[in-house]
From TrEMBL:
It comes from the Bacteria. SUPFAM superfamilies: Bacterial exopeptidase dimerisation domain, Zn-dependent exopeptidases. This is Glutamate carboxypeptidase. Keywords: Carboxypeptidase, Hydrolase, Metal-binding, Protease. It comes from Sutcliffiella tianshenii. Pfam families: M20_dimer, Peptidase_M20. It is an enzyme of class 3 (hydrolase). GO terms for molecular function: carboxypeptidase activity. InterPro entries: Bact_exopeptidase_dim_dom (IPR036264), Pept_M20_glutamate_carboxypep (IPR017150), Peptidase_M20 (IPR002933), Peptidase_M20_dimer (IPR011650), Peptidase_M20A (IPR050072).
């Protein structure tokens, strides 16, 4: 497999270039569906069937498995969408400089799509039939929280033993064994307008009330326990000489353990149930929608196996926790042993400087292929 993948590196880069040069931002449905059509054709050449789940707002989601698969035990998830708007690919298309490749979505995660495809090719080339033990979801909306694909991922995770999530490895090559969960809230305060010079006493300041809530909400943070409550954006008022009749706060929540969600939800509702400025009214919207990916015994066992595979091919494997979210949270929450970050190494995702470390492409593909093979024995 190793020789095959080394010899395939140029071919892999050509396919990555093709995918990168298609705009597939989450809201660019046409582009995502073009990427999906290319990948569908590639998988069908390898004997896989591709079920298309049609979506109106976002790109279509794809369910991929070999035509001879019988109750596969491994689920793999790789998203096709990026964060970049229409026109980005034309402005800065795929390019190679030295040992790195650049372009919108090059590592998050179009290189991962190609890695997954060539891992299957390597398995077939080697004579292994473990590619029949895989169910693959190529989803279209991960960058906005997977609103359409989350139910699909949770549905297809039922009965699976292992989940391999194809987000890129960290800059230092680490796999991801834990992710923080979280969600967002919007706090809307309604007050009463009045002229601040003529009759301020008749007004009820929404901004003053919101200030109390900002302090109370931020105080819920407990960094030692992995809880972060951040009021990151506020707005309000109508003019400098008017008692503000309305104010809004947008709140970001991060948790490390699932039980923290219920506690925070109750505390946030409690804080917003009463007002400190009489005559104001509070409307609370939002929820903690993404569960955390917790590093449990199942995860540790799967990591140990991947580490052993790494040793066999001369690759040191180590893991880390990260605050960012991914679809790994959804597979983990269903009770499936989950490891994330199985894509190639790169960095600066979501920025103009996003890059792929080219030399890691064949080695990470080999790691993935041999991990699938080992899990299937």
């Amino acid at each position: 497999m190793e020789t095959y993948l080394q010899q395939s590196q140029a071919e892999m880069l050509q396919l990555i270039e093709k995918l990168v040069n298609i705009d597939s931002g989450t809201y660019v449905k046409e582009g995502i569906d073009r990427v999906g059509a290319i990948l569908r054709e590639e998988y069908e050449k390898l004997g896989f069937t591709v079920e298309v789940r049609e979506e109106e707002k976002y790109g279509n989601n794809l369910i991929v498995q070999h035509r001879n698969a019988i109750d596969p035990k491994i689920i793999l998830v790789a998203h096709m969408d990026t964060v970049f708007p229409l026109g980005t690919a034309a402005e800065r298309p795929f390019r190679i400089e030295g040992d790195r490749a650049y372009g919108p979505g090059v590592v998050d995660m179009k290189s991962s799509q190609v890695e997954l495809l060539y891992a299957i090719k390597a398995l077939q080339q080697s004579g292994s039939e473990s590619y029949k033990n895989m169910l693959i979801i190529l989803n279209s909306d991960e960058e906005v929280g997977s609103p359409t694909s989350r139910p699909l991922i949770e549905e297809k995770s039922q009965g699976k033993e292992y989940a391999l999530i194809m987000e890129p490895a960290r800059k230092d090559g680490s796999l991801v064994s834990a992710r923080r969960g979280g969600g967002t809230y919007t706090v809307i305060v309604k007050g009463k307008a009045a002229h601040s010079g003529i009759e301020p006493q008749k007004g009820r300041s929404a901004i003053e009330e919101l200030a109390h809530k900002v302090i109370q909400l931020n105080a819920l943070s407990d960094y030692d326990k992995g809880i972060s409550v951040n009021v990151g954006l506020i707005e309000g008022g109508s003019s400098i000489n008017t008692i503000p009749p309305i104010a809004t706060a947008h709140v970001d929540i991060r948790i490390s353990e699932m039980h923290q969600a219920k506690y925070l939800e109750e505390k946030i509702k409690e804080i917003c149930a009463t007002t400190d400025v009489s005559g104001t009214q509070i409307i609370l919207k939002g929820s903690i929608s993404r569960p955390p990916m917790e590093k449990n015994k199942q995860t540790e066992s799967l990591l140990h196996l991947i580490e052993e595979v790494g040793k066999e091919i001369g690759l040191q494997v180590f893991d880390t926790a990260t605050g960012g979210g991914s679809d790994a949270s959804f597979t983990s929450a269903t009770g499936v042993a989950t490891v994330d970050g199985l894509g190639p190494v790169g960095g600066n995702a979501h920025s103009e400087d996003e890059y792929l470390e080219i030399k890691t492409l064949p080695e990470r593909t080999l790691l993935l292929a041999k991990t699938i093979d080992r899990l299937s024995k």
